[in-house]
Amino acid sequence: MPTLLRIDASAQLEERSLTRHLTGIFTGTFLANAPKSLVITRDVGLNPIPAIDQEFIQAAFTPLEEREAWMNERLALSDELIEEVEAADILVMGAPMYNYGIPTALKGWIDQVARIGKTFSFDLARGDTPIEPILSGKRLVVLSARGEFGFGQGGVRAHLNALDLGLAACAHYFGVAPGHVETIAIEYQEFKDDRHRASVVTAEARTRDLATQLAITVAQAV
Ligand SMILES: Cc1cc2nc3c(=O)[nH]c(=O)nc-3n(C[C@H](O)[C@H](O)[C@H](O)COP(=O)(O)O)c2cc1C
């Protein structure tokens, strides 16, 4: 069954969030074109994921057979989040730009999903590239919104865009190869002018097109 994992990271509620608006369009269009799909929803914006801490790191780096009960408890949420990623063919992320980067809520999710022995392996026998992803074959759709503008390639603020760079850098932990990340972003939100309205219309149309195309591709492949 084609499976879509929808992750929302905006701290704003549905009616005030542009990224939730886009993930809603994506999910609705995807289901319309692949009605037998399963949608898993994970709302880290409204239900934040706890930050990783010393206990989490100790538990994650203790071999499975040596883990104490508290370690398994400490990793339970991470296990659940990873299972959702494993089940998914496509991950669609509503990812607002906060302070030029990834919202804390979404970074918290990434920190729990990037796990040694679960989503990546580490072996110094591989020389200078010891990390290898364990998952593969998934697609990532980043649906973003920004208050300012010019964050795309060649744009006036491209050098400030730590959001797209950060998500692309971590995509291998979710089983997504470099060429399989698609990003659609609404810009000019803080200007609330015609440029913003045009950006919303363009992003909505691109989101519908991409959801249709991916639904057909995934439904045929599964
Ligand atoms: C805490 C916070 C930080 C933000 N930082 C930036 C920023 O660095 N650059 C920018 O262009 N917009 C920034 N914005 C504007 C948001 O990217 C914009 O409001 C976007 O629409 C938020 O997504 P949402 O509508 O889904 O909540 C920020 C907004 C908030 C609330």
Automatic annotation (TrEMBL):
This enzyme's EC code(s): 1.6.5.-, 1.7.1.17
Gene of this entry: azoR1
Alphabetical list of HAMAP family matching this protein: Azoreductase_type1
Keywords: Flavoprotein, FMN, NAD, Oxidoreductase
Protein name per its UniProtKB record: FMN dependent NADH:quinone oxidoreductase
Domain Flavodoxin-like fold as annotated: residue spans: 4-192
Organism: Roseovarius albus
Subunit structure as annotated in this protein's UniProt entry: Homodimer.
Cofactor requirements of the protein: FMN
Residues that, per the record, bind FMN: S10
